[in-house]
Write a structure and sequence with these properties.
The chain has 280 residues and is an all-alpha fold. Helix content is 71%, strand content 0%. The chain has one domain (56-275): MetI-like (MetI-like fold). The chain is built from 14 helices and no strands. Helix 4 packs antiparallel against helix 11. It starts with 6 loop residues before the first helix and ends in a 5-residue tail after the last helix.
Length: 280
């Protein structure tokens, strides 16, 4: 039922929403504006909401002090591969758990869900020994294989399973009557209908891979192989102090893809959570 608000009530509601928005918007605004300030102005009191002078050289110094373009590319292509790989394998696993009846299916799914309870810090040492034996240390393979086939993909599998459970069985029964096999039904009917859930999985996976920090510092030691979270810690002066304006400039450029991805796919993201029963 539609509820009409009086003009005064609308002003009150929108004003309250703007006030509640401040804690979420202000840190981003401070990051962007401080990246354009000299270091002496960043810690000025009272804080400068709008810089008195703009210093755009901080963005050029980001690329001078570190191979930042290469590090940016490292994060971008790793996140892209991990996102696509997770969408493929989690959708197949979720469909199998939702539609295929096999012995101990529910018990096996509960075992898979235990991956959500295991912190990444617990498995980092065994993983390091495994990749060391495979001669994959200081390569990007651990950052690709672990998220796709390890515990981080468990949540994606859960989301896809919940979506496929809610999908009407009659659609598949009609396709089976027409002679389609299990994989053909999955590829031509179930997967295209799962676009909202896939969008939610894509955003979660992209953010996880883009912000990954522990694994890169364990598996990677060469600056040319760094990803962005690891690279952000390297902007220090000769005495080891943080170069705040340059760090904030690098952080601003790091946050741009995250904002772009969410703005483009936010509608599909919300629909995906609603269809999988995760929306509060």
């Amino acid at each position: 039922m539609k509820t009409d608000l009086s003009p005064r009530m609308q002003v009150t509601v929108y004003g309250l929403m703007m006030v509640l928005l401040i804690p979420f918007v202000f840190p981003t605004w401070w990051m962007v504006t401080s990246s354009l300030k000299p270091i002496s102005d960043i810690f000025a009191f009272p804080p400068q909401i709008i810089p008195e002078r703009f210093d755009f050289t901080t963005y050029a110094k980001v690329f001078e002090l570190q191979p930042f373009a290469r590090q940016y590319w490292n994060s971008a292509y790793i996140a892209a591969i991990v996102t696509v790989g997770t969408m493929i394998f989690s959708s197949m696993a979720g469909y199998a758990f939702a539609r295929i009846r096999f012995p101990f299916a529910n018990a096996l799914f509960m075992v898979v869900l235990t991956g959500l309870l295991i912190p990444s810090e617990v498995t980092i040492v065994p993983l390091f020994r495994i990749f060391l034996a495979w001669d994959m240390i200081n390569t990007h393979w651990p950052l690709i294989l672990v998220p796709i086939f390890g515990a981080p993909s468990v949540f994606a599998t859960f989301v896809m399973r919940q979506f496929f459970i809610a999908l009407p069985v009659e659609l598949e029964e009609a396709a089976r009557v027409d002679g389609l096999g299990r994989f053909k039904i999955f590829w031509t009917i179930a997967l295209p209908l799962a676009r909202p859930a896939l969008a939610a999985v894509a955003i979660f996976t992209f953010l996880h891979s883009w912000n990954l920090y522990l694994e890169p510092i364990v598996f990677i030691s060469s600056p040319d192989m760094f990803t962005l979270p690891q690279a952000l810690t390297q902007f220090t002066d000769a005495y080891g102090g943080a170069m705040w304006n340059i760090q904030l400039a690098a952080a601003t450029m790091t946050a741009i893809p995250v904002l772009v991805v969410f703005v483009i796919a936010q509608r599909q993201f919300v629909e995906g959570l609603a269809h999988t029963g995760l929306k509060g």
